[in-house]
Design a protein that fits this description.
The complex is a heterodimer of chains A (291) and B (155). Chain A is an alpha+beta fold and 291 residues long. Chain A contains 3 helices and 12 strands. A 6-stranded antiparallel barrel of chain A has the order 1-2-5-4-3-12. Chain B has 155 residues and is mainly α. Chain B contains 6 helices and no strands. The chains are: A alpha+beta (291), B mainly alpha (155).
């Protein structure tokens, strides 16, 4: 019925038409994205966790019980203590800064109410279609994790949740070019948008007018604009400021304050209107289990 | 039965290996192997599962990996028509095609969807994909032909 040429054309056009139909359907309904998240992300998560567990357990056995049993235990304890102290220090620093700022303000706007939950980073890039800077977390929609939730460490912001499956989720890091965060300087209160430029590249502060003051080493915190991030989370430290002659805006580079590559656990913030905490600052006691 | 167990174990193992070799495609060489062994039924069952795994665990909207595997199948048909499977050129051209195809698809689809993808890591990811491809193909071909279906060990 078909010649070899027509057969080739049909073999080429038919799958292409099918692909375009599926692509359009997904663009309109998001059905395939949901299906892939529910099945693929979930499956990879379930495979990754026992695989990593086996790897870590074998390493852990050697390190903990054979080589440096006592030192390792003490180190773990000290690390935990250090983490708790950093959280407390951050709370006190932020409160002190907040008081200073509020003295100059007539109108006080209370910080929004947030709860936090812990999550473990179980993997980084998973597949060839993982073109964005993301990490896989061991908490998903059944743990009330949803898209857009901010993820942070005691040192500062790491990113926000991009997509979720029932038991896992993906966090878009602040270094990804699609990450844009409204920030404000801690010293000069200059507002800007912090944009990622890819891994191993500095972050860039956009839309900083030439006449707005900023200083090298200044910490940029979330401004709270847009409502996605609570106000006051440290995000980046300014590393370089350039004022091109013929540009409207300054060219400002910054580095993340959180160690994005070396984290194992992070905190996810959830807005809670029913049980508002005193402030957004993290209280170790309010953290839920990581597993 | 052996084949079902093999592919199930391979799928689980490949999904885990991909988390260790960042950005590598462990299912592409398996697609090539299925086509070589003329296991079209197995491929028809496995490919949707592999696509769902790749798409679901990826960070781009659905479509990129579906298009990638469709293209890969075309490349296999095309390359097989001109180059013998026993020639090293066969898998080297497929690896190169897979790397380039991956780079083009991610770039094209991300710009269509207005998603910014950093060029340098994407380039390295495609290079890594192309470099791992022949190694994995050789490894699974050896296991498959000599352990799973010894009667087919005549390539």
């Amino acid at each position: 019925m078909f010649g070899p040429k027509s057969k080739l054309v049909v073999l080429f056009l038919l799958p292409l038409a099918l692909y375009l139909a599926l692509y359009s359907l997904n663009q309109r309904t998001g059905l395939l994205d949901r299906l892939a998240s529910l099945s693929g992300l979930e499956a990879v998560g379930w495979v990754t966790v026992p695989g990593d567990w086996a790897k870590e357990t074998s390493y852990g056995l050697w390190r903990d019980y054979v080589a440096l049993w006592g030192v390792r235990q003490e180190n773990k304890k000290l690390r935990q203590q250090n983490r708790d102290l950093r959280i407390r220090l951050m709370r006190l620093q932020s409160r002190a800064a907040e008081v200073e700022r509020l003295r100059g303000l007539l109108e006080f706007s209370p910080p929004p109410a947030w709860n936090c939950t812990g999550a473990r980073i179980v993997a980084e890039r998973l597949t060839p279609s993982d073109a964005l800077q993301t990490v896989l977390l061991n908490k998903g929609s059944t743990n009330t994790v949803h898209s857009g939730m901010p993820g942070l460490t005691p040192a500062g912001l790491m990113g926000r949740v991009l997509k979720t499956s029932p038991h896992f989720s993906k966090l878009l890091l602040i270094t990804d070019p699609n990450s844009k965060i409204p920030v404000i300087g801690t010293n000069n209160r200059t507002k800007a948008i912090l944009k990622g430029k890819g891994p191993r590249s500095d972050l860039q502060l956009e839309y900083v007018p030439r006449n707005r003051p900023l200083s090298e080493g200044e910490i940029m915190v979330t401004s709270g604009l847009g409502g996605l991030f609570p106000k006051g989370i440290p995000v980046a430290r300014i590393t370089a400021i350039n004022q091109p002659r013929d540009a409207l805006f300054q060219k400002v580079l910054a580095e993340p304050v959180a160690d994005l590559g070396g984290q194992e656990e992070i905190l996810l913030l959830r807005q809670s209107s029913r049980n508002p905490p005193e402030s957004w600052i993290l209280d170790p006691a309010s953290m839920t289990s990581l597993d | 039965m052996t084949e079902t167990i093999w592919w199930t174990l391979y799928t689980l193992f490949a999904a885990w290996i991909q988390t260790l070799i960042l950005g590598a495609d462990c299912f592409g060489p398996a697609v090539v192997l299925c086509l070589q062994a003329r296991r079209y039924g197995s491929l028809a069952c496995l490919l949707p599962v592999w696509i769902l795994i790749q798409e679901g665990a990826g960070s781009l909207p659905f479509g990129s990996m579906l298009l990638y595997y469709m293209g890969l199948i075309y490349f296999v048909i095309l390359v097989r028509a001109y180059i013998s499977i026993t020639s090293p050129l066969y898998i080297l051209s497929l690896s190169l095609a897979a790397g380039l195809w991956h780079l083009s698809i991610i770039q094209a689809l991300s710009s269509l969807q207005e998603i910014h993808v950093a060029m340098e890591p994407l380039l390295f990811q495609s290079i890594r994909l192309a470099a791992v491809f022949p190694v994995l193909w050789a490894l699974i071909s050896l296991i498959y032909y000599f352990r799973i279906t010894p009667s087919y060990a005549r390539i």
